[in-house]
Amino acid sequence: MKYCAICGKEMPWRSLKTYLENHEVICEDCAAEAGFQAGITYPDTSAEILKFKISKDKEYKEFINRESVNKYCQDHLMIDEKNNELLIGRCDYGSALFYKAKLNNILDIKYYDDNQTVEIQTQTASSGAGKAVVGGLLFGGLGAIAGGLMGRQDAHYSTKTTITKCGIQITYENGEMDELNVLLYVFMKDSISPNSETLRQAQSLITAMCEVLLPYTKKWKEKQEAEKNDARSTTTNNVEALVKAAELLDKGLLSQEEFDALKKKTLA
Ligand SMILES: [Zn+2]
User: Residue 93: which region, alpha, beta or left (left: phi > 0; alpha: psi -120 to 50)?
Assistant: First the structure.
């Protein structure tokens, strides 16, 4: 009697057996879960590798089917605020390539590749050119976004014959850092030419991802807070000026017309 090297189930002698390296054999169900055709021999893979792949596939599917996923950028970046997690990657051809990270303690995010690291500017979020691409819409202004933010393919790349990484660098408040290689996790490439369309597509996707991620960074929040405080203090100053003017009006140092004009201007 044979037993499946993945699930341990007993396999009836008539069932289709999938052979792996070292004469390991797996059942039809496990072969299907791994995306393999039952009854065929796959001499280059082991039950251990497939076990890992199957469990990663399940983990990925669990994430993308969560009701609590509240923001996404195509199916390559998903944000689950409720569970404080983000996911970057894809799951195709039965092989899961993805990366999970924590959401609540991100200090800032950067674009990176073999040759450069580009700070994602906080003003990008409010500028029209870098409008967030949320909800599966593919970059309308692909060239504009990628060109403006990064996509510097001239001097930087002239001496490089291949690019091996291109992704998002996340720095956490505790100083830890994650590098999410979008080239690998999404485009499934471990190296490309610097002039390839894939690099431009990766950069565009990364730009869009960064737009979605930006509001979760501490630096972005601090900037928003500072802007709010600025607006608040302007209002406070205006009110103080008006109170002063009212005193001057009372003392007859300001005419009613002058006061009205000032009031109109201040409250505009
Ligand atoms: Zn099995």
Answer: left
Please state the pTM of the whole predicted model: 0.64
Residue 144's contacts (CB-CB under 8 Å, 6 or more residues apart) are 129
How far away, in angstroms, is 29 Cα from ligand 1 center? 6
Q: What is the pLDDT of residue 129?
A: 40
Domain residue ranges in the chain = 2-54, 86-216, 226-267
Q: How close is the Cα of 76 to the center of ligand 1, in Å?
A: 30
What confidence tens digit (pLDDT) does each residue in 187-213 have?
A: 888 899 888 888 888 888 888 888 888
Ligand 1 centroid to Cα of residue 32, in Å, is: 9
Q: 34 C-alpha vs ligand 1 centroid, how far in Å?
A: 10
Q: What is the pLDDT of residues 112-124, one digit of tens each?
A: 888 888 877 654 4
Rounded to the nearest angstrom, the distance between the alpha carbon of 8 and the centre of ligand 1 is: 6
Contact 146, 203 (CB under 8 A): yes
Ligand 1: centre distance to CA 100 (Å) = 27
